[in-house]
């Protein structure tokens, strides 16, 4: 079993990246070839110059427009630019919280890093994930920062909220910033329960999600007291 990676949670400002794109998925046999071709075109086929990227401009590898059924995505290679030449796309990276991973070594090793990231449990938002390349030497060595967008987490049951309909509502009818649709409605909690009852309810609702119910229960008992609703309990 692949070991999960540790990460740092950071808050990032919004930014806009323009570049060339291709749609693929991790399961596609030509995935590596497609993404590698984007980098080839960016560095050697004039794309970087067309974007008016300076000599020390940060370049990005972006992954966005995920499809939930097959987790295919749009891969983009580019930089921050004031122009969008023909054949390029512009992607807005939203401000928010991201899981930050750092890789140092050969650029060719970034793919293996992503394999570990995909196997690391975290509340992913699946909006825009990206690699940030600030400096590489002539041999292709350097440090790459990888940022994975994190979803808001319900402060009652711990469910990641990735879609507008996942959010509960407050008394004024507006979406709750802290609670999901299963826990909050019209400014009140849907379930009048204790933390222990909430944990058992979560385990009962979708037992197929947990290979070991006792281990999952122990993890929840450690995690739930960090959620806003249960901090006083």
Automatic annotation (TrEMBL):
<dbReference type="Pfam" id="PF14526">
    <property type="entry name" value="Cass2"/>
</dbReference>
<feature type="domain" description="AraC effector-binding">
    <location>
        <begin position="5"/>
        <end position="151"/>
    </location>
</feature>
<dbReference type="InterPro" id="IPR010499">
    <property type="entry name" value="AraC_E-bd"/>
</dbReference>
<dbReference type="InterPro" id="IPR011256">
    <property type="entry name" value="Reg_factor_effector_dom_sf"/>
</dbReference>
<dbReference type="Pfam" id="PF12674">
    <property type="entry name" value="Zn_ribbon_2"/>
</dbReference>
<protein>
    <recommendedName>
        <fullName>AraC effector-binding domain-containing protein</fullName>
    </recommendedName>
</protein>
<dbReference type="InterPro" id="IPR025868">
    <property type="entry name" value="Zn_ribbon_dom_put"/>
</dbReference>
<dbReference type="InterPro" id="IPR053182">
    <property type="entry name" value="YobU-like_regulator"/>
</dbReference>
<dbReference type="InterPro" id="IPR029441">
    <property type="entry name" value="Cass2"/>
</dbReference>
């Amino acid at each position: 079993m692949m070991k999960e990676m540790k990460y740092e949670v950071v808050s990032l400002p919004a930014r806009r990246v323009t570049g060339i794109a291709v749609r693929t998925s991790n399961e596609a046999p030509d995935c590596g070839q497609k993404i590698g071709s984007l980098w080839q075109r960016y560095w050697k086929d004039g794309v970087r110059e067309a974007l008016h990227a300076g000599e020390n401009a940060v370049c990005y590898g972006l992954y966005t427009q995920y499809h939930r059924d097959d987790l295919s995505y749009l891969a983009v290679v580019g930089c921050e630019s004031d122009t969008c030449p023909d054949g390029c796309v512009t992607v807005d990276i939203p401000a928010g919280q991201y899981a930050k991973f750092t890789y140092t070594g050969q650029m060719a090793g970034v793919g293996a890093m992503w394999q570990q990231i995909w196997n690391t449990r975290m509340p992913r938002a699946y909006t825009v994930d990206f690699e940030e390349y600030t400096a590489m030497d002539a041999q292709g060595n350097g440090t790459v920062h990888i940022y994975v967008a994190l979803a808001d987490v319900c402060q009652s049951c711990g469910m990641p909220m990735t879609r507008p309909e996942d959010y509960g509502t407050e008394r004024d009818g507006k979406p709750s910033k802290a609670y999901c649709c299963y826990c909050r409605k019209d400014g009140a909690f849907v379930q009048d329960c204790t933390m222990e009852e909430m944990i058992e309810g979560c385990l009962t609702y979708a037992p197929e999600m947990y290979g070991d119910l006792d281990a999952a229960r122990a993890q929840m008992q450690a995690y739930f007291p960090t959620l806003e609703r249960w901090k006083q309990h």
